[in-house]
Design goal:
- This protein has helices spanning about 5-25, 50-55, 80-105, 155-175, and strands at about 35, 40-45, 65-70, 110-115, 120-130, 135-145, 150-155.
- The chain is built from four helices and seven strands; from the N terminus they run H-E-E-H-E-H-E-E-E-E-H.
- The strands form three sheets. A three-stranded antiparallel sheet has the order 3-7-6.
- By secondary structure, it is α+β, with helices and mostly antiparallel strands.
- Strand 6 (about 135-145) and strand 7 (about 150-155) form a beta hairpin.
- Helix 1 runs antiparallel to helix 4 (about 155-175).
Length: about 180
C-alpha cells in the first residue's frame, strides 16, 4: 500500500495527464479547402489528425456513465424465497454502486508475482475500491435468468466531475 502523500502525488499526476489528454483530444486540424459552387462558398468538414483520432477514445465523451450490478438469489442467507429475492435486489444494487465507484475513482490494485528458477511460482492480485457516490439514478432492476437480478444505475457526467474534483481537493489537503 502506498503512503498517502505518494498516492496523492501519483493521483495528481494522473489527473494532469488526463487534462493533457483532454486538451490534445480537443485539438483538430481544420481542412482549409473551400469549394466554390454557384450558390456560395462551402467549407469542407474538419479533418481530425491521426494523434487526435487515437486519443479520442480515451477521453470520456458520454453525458452519463452507467453501471450494472448482479446478484444470485439462491445464495442469499434467508429462509423465505421472497426475502432471498429482496436481498438479491439489494446486493445487485450495491454491486452497481461499486461499479460506478470504480468508474469514478478507479481501482487500487496490489499485485505480487513470485519467480523462482525462472518459473512463476505464484501470482496474486488484490483490488480495492473506495469513494463516495451521490446523485446516481436507478435505471432498472430486472431478473436475469431464473436465479439472478440485474440492476443498472447511471450517473451524470457533471456529478462525476464534481466527485472527482472533491476527491482531488481532499487528497491535496491531506498531502499538506
Amino acid at each position: 500500500m502506498l503512503p498517502t502523500s505518494t498516492f496523492a502525488r501519483r493521483l495528481v499526476k494522473l489527473a494532469c495527464l488526463g487534462a493533457l489528454t483532454a486538451g490534445l483530444a480537443a485539438c483538430q486540424t481544420m481542412g482549409g479547402a473551400e469549394q466554390s459552387s454557384g450558390m456560395g462558398v462551402e467549407e469542407a468538414p474538419p479533418v481530425r489528425s491521426a494523434r487526435t483520432s487515437m486519443i479520442a477514445p480515451i477521453v470520456e465523451t458520454r453525458e452519463t456513465i452507467t453501471a450494472t450490478g448482479y446478484a444470485v438469489i439462491s445464495v442469499q442467507n434467508h429462509k423465505t424465497p421472497a426475502q432471498k429475492r429482496l436481498l438479491a435486489i439489494r446486493a445487485s444494487k450495491l454491486d452497481a454502486y461499486r461499479s460506478l465507484t470504480e468508474q469514478v475513482y478507479g481501482q487500487h490494485l496490489d499485485a505480487t508475482t513470485t519467480v523462482a528458477d525462472m518459473t512463476v511460482m505464484s501470482d496474486t492480485f488484490r483490488s480495492r475500491v473506495e469513494g463516495v457516490i451521490y446523485g446516481a439514478v436507478l435505471v432498472s432492476i430486472t431478473p436475469a435468468g431464473e436465479d439472478t437480478y440485474e440492476t443498472t444505475m447511471s450517473l451524470d457526467k457533471r456529478v462525476v466531475d464534481d466527485l472527482r474534483a472533491l476527491y482531488l481537493g481532499q487528497l491535496a489537503t491531506r498531502a499538506n
